[in-house]
Amino acid sequence: LVVLDKQQSFRWLHSVLAGFECFYDIRLAESKLTAVEHLLTEQDTEDTDKETAPASPDTIQPALVIVGAAFEELPAYQALVKETVPDFLQDRIHLHGGVSAASLLALYHQALGLFYVPDEKELGLGLPVLEALTMQCPVVVSKVAHLEAFAENAALFVAPHEPLQLAFAMAQLVEEQKLLRALRHNGRKRT
Fold first, then answer.
1. pTM (2 decimals)?
2. I need a surface site. Which of 78, 152, 178, 179 has the fewest CB within 10 A?
3. In the β-sheet with 114-116, what is the strand arrangement from edge to edge?
4. How far is the C-alpha of 118 from the C-alpha of 136, rounded, in Å?
């Protein structure tokens, strides 16, 4: 989930989109490697298992939901997504303008995490981080003093505009249930 503040720039959103693409690339590479290892092992035993095939982008489920863009900005954000995101990921990105408070609460409850990674110049008030922590939604935030002091042990921290770091943080949220529970617990304690 990405909740845009008024301060965020296209550069910031571009970094999030690139991180999302890296996340999928890593997941696909891991899946293909697992399938190859399985096939090599199968050749020795002659026991084939048809269920183990490399994952396709369709079998990896996470989507990126982006909300908060002003209505007049939506076409520009849609163009950015269309220009920067590969075709196979286009249907995994859901871009909305402003949403109601009830819809935003539902999104926080359903989200794997909030991704809020502006640099110092793009940093808004950080209200989406507070909202997410209050709703026990794990957060991935920029390594900037204001957010580090605020979120402490209730967040994963990444360098701004570093898509690979963001991709690894996304993977951690998907794969590490113990970490997910700890972030939710710590977020509740911070607010």
1. 0.75
2. 178
3. 114-116, 139-142, 155-158
4. 21
